[in-house]
User: Fold this.
Amino acid sequence: MSFFMKARPALSKETAGLSRDTLKKLALFTMLLDHIGVVVLYPWISIRRDIMTVTQQQFWNLSYFSLRTIGRIAFPIFAFFLVEGFFYTRDKKRYFMRLFGMALLSEIPFNLAVSDSFFMPSHQNTLFTLALGLLLLECLSRWRAPNVLQMCLLVLFALAAIVLRLDYAAYGIVLIVIFYWFHADKKACMSFGAVLSFADSMRNLGAAALAYIPLSLYDRKKQPNKKGAWMFYVFYPAHLLVLYGIRLLVCKPA
Assistant:
């Protein structure tokens, strides 16, 4: 049997644990905290640094670091459920088009939130990373390539993520493929994913590895909920616009 998973896996017996919707809400919450730090708190600190005492600077810098650290939890959860969606969706083309369409729709809110401009070629939003990862999964599942060729595809797509300057770049693509390859082996899936996420988030104390605690409790039960499926897609551009508006209100020169 190949080292890498090449067919849709048979899931283990369902057990009590955290539901898909619960985990997605956790990811949305931690992402929101991360973006509060990036979009609102960091600019606010920057324009007030000169009038703060040393103690105040330390407090707000620690607050910013804490928000960014907690935010590292979000992406592994999103990547994991991208792979779950790939296995269980009936229309993969529609799944990709929906994800890519929302990535395009979210780009201006993302640019405004991050750089105060409508166009920012130096950094693209997370939905593009997920869409590229989904495209790679389709290639791997269709071509049934030998392991060496699968690795070549992974390297090619990871390089594309770097060249296109996608959020999470090569790490995001590799993590998605790990979840795909080891989908049938929960222990291996969580272990390899946690190691990679820990290494990628070393600047934030390896906090991304904490995502695998709730992920390991996922009950793998199907929850047909179309409203829930759209929750992330709508929330992503909407919260970026709201945070950008808040920054315009609060980040004025003192």
Q: What stands out?
A: Residues 1-14 have pLDDT under 50 and may be disordered. The radius of gyration is 19 Å.
